[in-house]
Amino acid sequence: MITLNINNEEHEVDAPPGMPVLWVLRDLLGLTGTKFGCGIAQCGACTVHLDGAAVRSCLLPVDTVGERRITTIEGVGASAVGARVQKAWLDLEVVQCGYCQSGQIMSATALLSKTAVPDDADINAAMAGNICRCGTYVRIREAIKRAAAEPAG
Amino acid sequence: MATDPKDFTAPRYSRRALLKGGAATGVLLLGFTLPFGRARAASAEVFAPNAFIRIDAKGKVTLIMPQVEMGQGIYTSVAMILAEELSVPLEQVELIAAPPSDALYGNPVFGIQVTGNSNSVRAFWKPLRQAGATARAMLIEAAARQWKVPAAALRAEAGAVLGSGGTRLPYAALIDAASRVPPPKDAPLKARRDFQLIGHPLKRLDTPDKVRGRTTYGIDAMPAGVKFATLMACPVFGGKVRHVDDARAKALPGVRQVVVLEDLVAVVADHMWAAKQGLAALKIEWDEGANSQVSSAQIWQQLREASTQEGVVAKSVGDAATALQGDGLVEAAYELPFLAHATMEPMNCTVHLTQGSCEIWVGSQVLSRAQAIAVKLTGLPPEKVIVHNHLIGGGFGRRLEVDYVDKAVRIAQHVEGPVKVIWLREEDVRHDVYRPVYRDLLSARLEHGRIQGWKHRISGSAIIARWLPPAFQKGIDIDAIDSAADIPYDIPHLRVEYVRAEPPAVPTGFWRGVGPNNNVFAIESFIDELANKASADPVEFRSRMLGQQPRLKAALELAAAKSGWGDALPARSGRGVAAQVAFGSFIATVAQVEVDAYGAVHVRRIVSAVDTGIVVNPDTVIAQLQGGLLFGLTAALYGEITIEGGRVQQSNFHDYRMLRIDQTPAVEVYLIDSDEAPGGIGETGTTAAPPAVANAIYAATGVRLRRLPIERALLAERRT
After folding, report:
1. Contact (CB, 8 A) for B315 and B270
2. Taking a C-beta distance cutoff of 8 angstroms, is the pair B459, B499 a contact?
3. Chain B closest CA to A137's CA: distance in Å?
4. What kind of fold does domain B218-289+347-422 have according to CATH?
5. Distance, C-alpha B667 to centroid of its chain
6. What pLDDT is stored for residue B718 in this prediction?
7. By the 8 A CB rule, do B394 and A133 touch?
8. Within a 13 Å sphere around the CA of A79, how many CA atoms are in the beta-carbon half?
């Protein structure tokens, strides 16, 4: 049994060593908001936070997580920055099919947690790992700037 | 569908005409008649005037969505149309996905339950308005009877009927009486000036769940006791399994079962990780069959040979052969590659098969076909095959097929309990149904700076012949010639031909932008070449031949003005334009690019002006154009599937690239106000971007690209 802290709750999971966190979340815990896209850390659909930093859960072995806190799309709204990002996403109607957007929101929240007012280069660097096939990039950029401009809290 | 029956010489029909002529031609396409009264009076607890609307005694309004939501915002747009005519606030309605039923929810254009070809709003615009207006008229009549006043004195607003002096009856209080009102034949529709919802940028109904990770896509279906499976079909198209050594796979913890079918092997496990590892541990020997030598080189050679033959005439005006004789003939050939769809949600389907029933969880653009394939495989009656339709993580035409349902049901036939079959990305890329390769031969002659004669020969796969066989008649694929037979420019002598050329082995299907993808790229690239030959400005050259197309001409002028057309740009930068009529929309696009010394293309800005008739949700239309343009840009910059040894060479996003945010240009979309019926918008941008970018590259470098994707080596000033 492995104990994981996910969205500030302790979970015990019976997962074999080496099993990526993506499948632990989805198949063992039913947290299906985190998405499978490529399995090789090329698309970012599976992005979660590990102690606040964005990581690709499809290549993150569950036995390497240790004490670090996992945050998923289901829990990111509990943080002020995460809630601001979600609100900006809705205000600007970023989402189309939505499948990649969990990962986009996780990456954007990690960016804004570290860099309160990112410029275009910061956004490119933080978000280029997240593919959106619907092509919502124009609005993603705007929404990150909108979230950065919202008052904290 | 931009094509209109009157534009055809032979054969004289479009998809729309085909529908109307369905009975005459002996095909199965059904006309669209609203099933009024079908559920009426079933219970006085619910007012159900037609297949789209339910109002219960508490006043809850449920709208049944005939089209599937895959990101295009159709749930919201359909709800807006119904709610508008029903006079209910959007926030009071609940949406339910329609069950499989061609009779009740068939697309009026195709006659089957399909979401595609950018025609949801176009096809359902009138029937849905009639559905809403009919229900409203019945509710008003019910109130009129109760108050003993003429119905004409009453009106509906915000879910209630209003009488004189502020009297008010909410719909909830009228459902019993309204159920007994005979539905009127021609309930009056609202005038555009009275619209409260249509034309306003309303918030989408599906997005709040999506930003919180609460939406259940097909891949998220989790019926109790579900097992997880992943599969591998023979990498060579058409190949079979010869032998499988599954000893190592079965020894892995979590692996439950290995299912070996004629054409594929699947590993069933407690979770996807075990299934994936199990698949990797299999030793499979394939019988590669007849296609093991098929290659892209061979496919292109065959296509080029096929395109030398004369094709079936899709359209003929005047005497093109004579008009093309003499000086000033310009000829060019354009080619487009195979493309995969690469939806972000990989193919998947969950199936629970028991002795007497089959339950399916899936996201599909063709719900009734998903059910039909399961009926065929299981022998169960349709009512025992329950299909739960889910929101779709990207369709783009891929989910107009049901191969993923077929494979999942065949696997489920060997599995106890529910099984979720998820394709790995590699399988998704290697067993797609691909946008076909196309080759277009164009020739034209100019006289006095205008096109006098025009000949366009399109060679490529006939998707319609496979996908909707009754619509493939007289050798013409109506999709393959779409936007070519109905070219918008004034050309006195014109001939458009189609050569059906099926690539060996590779399955082909619809891809966002469908037929116009190919034709708009070829035509708009060639028009640019002709403008150059005529020493004319590309915008002005197009404009002078758009006398019959005021809507497109206006879009062209607006796009030119907004883009700063003609303003000076730095060296190796350029603007390119493309104009098109497709999917009933009129769009002009200007791309601005910069090509660096190494041949890398940086698209800086894309400006589109579009007249798509009456707009239901303007924000959705803009989003669809923004996204569609970038979808087309991905194809232009990177998109190509190649074949070697009968198999696809690409496998995942590292070798089948997608546009990313750091390469995304500024995108500006301008909507032109219009009173015309709505046009289609989901695919319009996709067809517009590639020719605009190719023309901009020519303006920047003087290099004319006649193939996609863009070949950087041709554009380099120096070698890296």
Report:
1. no
2. yes
3. 5
4. Aldehyde Oxidoreductase; domain 4 (3.30.365)
5. 21
6. 67
7. yes
8. 21
Structural domains for chain A:
2-71 (3.10.20.30), 76-149 (1.10.150.120)
Going by C-alpha positions, the residue among B426, B438, B425, B345 that lies closest to residue B649 is B426
Q: Tell me the shortest Cα–Cα distance from B115 to chain A, in angstroms.
A: 14
Please state the separation of Cα A39 from the chain's center in Å: 15
**Dihedral Cα A88, A94, A99, A104, nearest 10 deg:** -50
Q: Out of A90, A125, A129, whose CB is closest to B211? A: A90
Q: A3: exposed, middle or buried (C-beta count within 10 Å: 0-12, 13-18, 19+)?
A: exposed
Q: Where are chain B's structural domains?
A: 32-201, 218-289+347-422, 297-338+434-715
Q: Do domains B32-201 and B297-338+434-715 have the same CATH topology?
A: yes
* C-beta separation of B529 from B330 below 8 A: yes
Q: What pLDDT is stored for residue B236 in this prediction?
A: 98
**Amino acid B642: pLDDT:** 98
Residue A86 is encoded by which pair of tokens? 């979600």
Other beta carbons within 10 angstroms of residue B496's beta carbon come to 26
Q: Which of A35, A40, A99 to mutate to test the interface with B (most CBs of B within 10 A)?
A: A99
Taking the C-alpha atoms of residue B693 and residue B701, their distance in angstroms, rounded to an integer, is 12
- ipTM for this prediction: 0.98
Q: By C-alpha distance, which of A4, A16, A21 is closest to A62?
A: A21
Phi, psi of B459 (to 5 degrees): -120, 130
**Secondary structure (3-state) at A145:** helix
Q: pLDDT class for A51, splitting at 50, 70, 90? A: very high
Those residues of chain B that have pLDDT short of 70 are: 1-44, 718-720
- Give the count of alpha carbons within 13 A of B43, CB side only: 6
Number of H helices and number of E strands within chain B?
19, 27
CA distance B44 to chain A (A): 38
Cβ-Cβ contacts under 8 Å, B272 against chain A: 23, 26-27, 36
What is the gyration radius of the CA atoms in chain A, in angstroms?
Answer: 15
- Find the mean pLDDT for residues A108-134: 98
CATH class in words for B32-201: alpha beta
With residue B298 as reference, give the H or E element that holds it. helix B296-306
Of A31, A89, A136, the CB nearest to B627: A136
DSSP A26: I
B627 contacts on A by Cβ (under 8 Å): 96, 134-136
Q: What angle do CA B586, B204, B580 make, to 5 degrees?
A: 10
Give kind and range of the element (H or E) at residue B84: helix B74-86
Tokens 């696009």: give the residue. B589
DSSP-derived 3-state class of residue B571: coil
Residues paired with residue B255 on neighbouring β-strands, in sequence order: B269
- Total Cβ atoms within 10 A of residue B72: 27
Which is nearest to B17 in space by CA: B1, B39, B33, B28?
Answer: B1
- For a pLDDT cut of 70, what percent of chain A falls above it? 99
Strand partners, B490: none
* 3-state SS class at B101: coil
Q: Which helix (H) or strand (E) holds B589?
A: strand B585-595
3-state percent helix, strand, coil for chain B, nearest multiple of 5: 35, 25, 40
Residues in CB range of B647: below 8 A, 6 or more apart:
B235, B236, B237, B430
Nearest by Cα to B636 from B709, B717, B566, B704: B709
- Sheet arrangement for strand B155-157: B155-157, B160-162, B168-170
CATH domain B297-338+434-715 topology: Aldehyde Oxidoreductase; domain 4 (3.30.365)
The β-bridge partners of B644 are B647
Tell me the HSE value of B385 on the side-chain side, using a 13 A CA sphere.
Answer: 23
- Specify the pairing of strand B358-362 against strand B385-389: parallel
**DSSP summary character for residue A25:** I
